[in-house]
Design brief:
186 residues, alpha+beta, Glutaredoxin, 2 domains, 4-stranded mixed β-sheet, 9 helices, binds glutathione
Length: 186
């Protein structure tokens, strides 16, 4: 086993975990006890000096990585057999950055949610009206990143009524019912 993913509790390890489950990529999961501050111990700080999860080590290339988006992109590029087209790869990277930098605060942070949530849902709903996929004709790391956050809406944005955005609602429900997603969330 060459890939070692450090996660813990409900950390943002969800995205790489779901991606690897979906693509049947073998890896070793190391769950750190955040309450016991294992993610602040010297051994883990060598992987992420900021002491945050997730982190990744790939023995086959010798890289250590932090930031869930960078980890997801790395796994997709090296193990996911996604598109080789530079434009598709740029688009996948765009959606992962959008998920972490724009969508995530619009779900988790109340002040941002009040300002941005509806506008973001309007755009996503329109995109999902014509396709289930954000890049090309198949599920990619872009869909993993965006849908992993959409699945948090029922928990963190309880007041949002997804009936206003039926195509976003469909994606959210499909994620919550996805066998691999459910398996990594248990
Ligand atoms: N932008 C980072 C966020 C990392 C992050 O804040 N992780 C949280 C768990 S979701 C964490 O490690 N919190 C513990 C701490 O900050 O001490 C990413 O996407 O990886």
């Amino acid at each position: 086993m060459t890939l070692h993913l450090y996660g813990g509790g409900r950390s943002r390890a969800v995205m790489p975990k779901w991606y690897m489950a979906e693509k049947q990529i073998d890896y070793n999961l190391i769950n750190l006890d955040m309450r016991g501050r294992q993610h602040k111990q010297p051994d883990y700080l060598k992987i992420n000096p900021f002491g945050k999860l997730p982190g990744l080590v790939d023995d086959s290339t010798g890289i250590t990585l932090f930031e869930s988006g960078a980890i997801l992109l790395y796994i997709a590029e090296h193990y996911g057999q996604e598109s080789k087209s530079p434009n598709d790869r740029a688009l996948i990277s765009q959606w992962i950055a959008f998920a972490n930098a724009t969508l995530s605060p619009a779900i988790f942070v109340q002040t941002v949610r009040e300002r941005d949530f509806e506008g973001i849902m309007d755009v996503l709903n329109k995109l999902y009206e014509t396709s289930n996929y954000l890049v090309g004709e198949r599920w990619t790391a872009a869909d993993c990143a965006v849908c992993a956050y959409l699945a948090y809406i029922p928990i963190f944005a309880k007041d949002a009524n997804l009936n206003h955005w039926p195509h976003v609602k469909r994606q959210t429900e499909e994620t919550l019912n996805n066998t691999h997603y459910k398996a990594i969330m248990t």
